[in-house]
DNA sequence: TTGAAAGCGCTAACAG
DNA sequence: CTGTTAGCGCTTTCAA
């Protein structure tokens, strides 16, 4: 770990600041207490609190007052134990690689934010969990130990088989990612192939012919994007050059290195299709460092339309994934499954957002943010 | 909600795909079942699983086999109910404004990632919760309803008073943010004033005199950064110009607008100190859109050293906050509080990372990423 | 070394 | 409308 912290100040001791109630940690008031004070039974309180119609309005009011004044809250743990539900769903981020800087891609954060909103709207809690490679069993545990009612996996990465197993066990599960043939689990994701195809076709339309594919093809979504890339080239009668197929992980640093070595390797190319905006941005940096101009010498297109894409310099042309509907859909489908309703995978349409980095001549007006 | 999804495919029905065990949803195996199979009592299983030394090794082995083969997992809900602990901690993101795009700043994500790691290392779960303005009571509920053992708030934003109340109730709570005088709760955060002061001093050292402060002073951390800004100016004998004090929210779009109107308002300045990297990046975009060069015409310094800062164009000079130690510290302090040990606030040192955007002449070598 | 019994705080029949 | 009675699945005395 890094160096010791520098300054230290405010002290938090267990002494109660002023003469406040020195209530012990176990001192929380329980339903029984409320019942006693209201002169009724626990059951009545329970009913009153759950809005049952079988309670005298007067009684309910009396109870409510007590509840408020003592700021009593039902213990969800006990409630869940009894009712068999947890009112919690897990969002799992399967890590792609050993020690990728945690959840670093802004795209994830945007999606996560929307998921969090949707989950909250349902009145559920959200458990966030990072799961290392191979350990899909960890996901099952979350359900088996009664911690959550269902799972949302962000990105199937290399966990495909593990996810299949979960789905086969009929655990409520929805995955953000690619729609694979024959898969047993439900996914929500953008139309990766079509999105990529359109992006690459756009580059070709700008007169580019030697287009680099920058991304990790082992991840299903990226493989589909690669398919789109190939399809677009084929449609234009261009033979894909394996030398322009550059694998890279998602971290900025990795992308930078990959791009650098491509350039230094003497490859010739006039465009780059990157599998994510973060990768695209790193690529641009590498290009500029080597004295290449974007988009004049090399046009670049990314994927995601992360917030920052519009603000980059040059502003990034990219394939937008709609994280807002995506997030909400993930949650809605999951709740449908929890409710026992059958669900099916959804593929979201993508949109090509053309900005400066792909070399389209535009006026002085900056293509704004979303 | 947006338009309807496009394509749909794989169906997830309740029918068990192949001849797998059509185990009902309640069909999970319980401790009692294991006990019966092992020919011992529930208590023994419990002891065996918790590593109690009062169990015959042979018995323990027999139980373990059963547990593994049935992939039995202890129900943490019941366990928690009995033991009074939840093994879960909450990370709360107090929202700054009504509908700021959820948790959009990459800085938060980086910090969150590290917190998640640290929490996982302790074997705890992490509940993610977004709380709207003013509703600090929501945080208390998390503890009162027995959902979590403690709270980590990321950014005090405008929730200061609410946090005070929580601390006064002696709930385990650690806050990422500014260290305010007399505050009752424990914080971890960077030395905002010193960091900002150094950044601004750096700009002054580059010969800049008219330096814009770009950020929201209502947030405690930002106010401290403003203090540092003023201090640096004062040290150089520069009178702060109120016209250069530009408030803006944290979203890229807001920063862009703020900067634009400053420029169009005809203000003259030769540098910008932005309260976050995201803001800095938007500011640069605005400057360039108006034909100003960075750093030649206007030098820019950000705050955070978000991953992308090194990759921006021009690479961003910024004040690095160490999210790795910060995250870990937040968690360690929280666990100390949960264990009943007294804790004190910590102020982390910052580091000024000088890159191209502040106009320092450097060779062809790019200041690399971290 | 093990088992029996008593709850953790709550809900849900089943009787009034 | 309300109270009584059983547990939800686990841990933990207290005895054996």
UniProtKB/TrEMBL annotation, chains A, B:
Pfam families: LacI, Peripla_BP_3. It comes from Nitrospirillum amazonense. This is LacI family transcriptional regulator. InterPro entries: HTH_LacI, LacI/GalR-like_sensor, Lambda_DNA-bd_dom_sf, Peripla_BP_I. It comes from the Bacteria. Signal peptide: none annotated. GO terms for molecular function: DNA-binding transcription factor activity; transcription cis-regulatory region binding. Residues 29-83 form the HTH lacI-type domain. Keywords: DNA-binding, Transcription, Transcription regulation. The keyword Transcription applies. SMART domains: HTH_LACI. CDD domains: HTH_LacI (cd01392), PBP1_CelR (cd06295). Residues 1-25 are annotated as: Disordered.
